[in-house]
Amino acid sequence: MTPRFLYTFIFVITAVTTQAQTAIGKRTVDGNSAILDFASGSTNGIILPAVTTLPASPANGTFLLDKNDRRVKMRQNGAWVNLSDQGSTSAIIANPATETANRTVMGSRSSNADGVLVLESSDKALILPKINSPHLNVKSPYPGMMCYDTTSQSMAIFDGFAWSYWK
């Protein structure tokens, strides 16, 4: 076995077994605890899926915008918790591709969770996009947008009408 082959083999094994971290809009994630992290100073947030049918067996920690009652919800302890008042879904643009989209799992080789983007890790978390006062600085928020408000130091969710803040 040549040294070059050995080094290549070790590199491949390390790359396959290492849990990746992803930074969007910047070079590295903040610290070592993030599986997905976003650049500061932007006014772009995460857009939650807008569904007409709630998932059959959602995992706790699932977030979505329920088009039926126009509320942002989170699955907690086996029940849906409303994170917003009744909003508006009139600005949502239908995208049939999302109904049949393949799913992406980050942080693990596989997952039993039902979702288009599943972040699953025993030691890493999602860092929300950080926006200073989103109610003032995001000019055209999309229903289901979620971010971290650096001014109030809370999670901010837009329901189509108004922003809700959670500490």
Properties at a glance:
167 residues, mainly beta, 5-stranded mixed β-sheet, 4-stranded mixed β-sheet, globular, disordered N terminus
Query: Between the first and last Cα atoms, what is the distance in angstroms?
Result: 57 Å
- How would you name the oligomeric state of the polypeptide chains in this document? single chain
Order of helices and strands: HEEEEEEEEEEEHEEE
The number of helical runs is: 2
Radius of gyration: 18 Å
The beta-strand count equals: 14
| Computed structural class | mainly beta
Spatial shape: globular
* Count of domain modules: 1
On the 0-100 scale, what is the average pLDDT?
83
Determine the fraction of residues in helical runs and give it as a percent range.
Answer: 10-25%
Biggest sheet features: 5 strands, mixed
Uncertain residue segments: 1-18
Q: How much of the polypeptide forms β-strand, as a percent range?
A: 25-35%
Short précis:
With 167 residues, the chain is mainly beta. The protein is 11% helix and 30% strand. Strand 13 and strand 14 (163-166) form a beta hairpin.
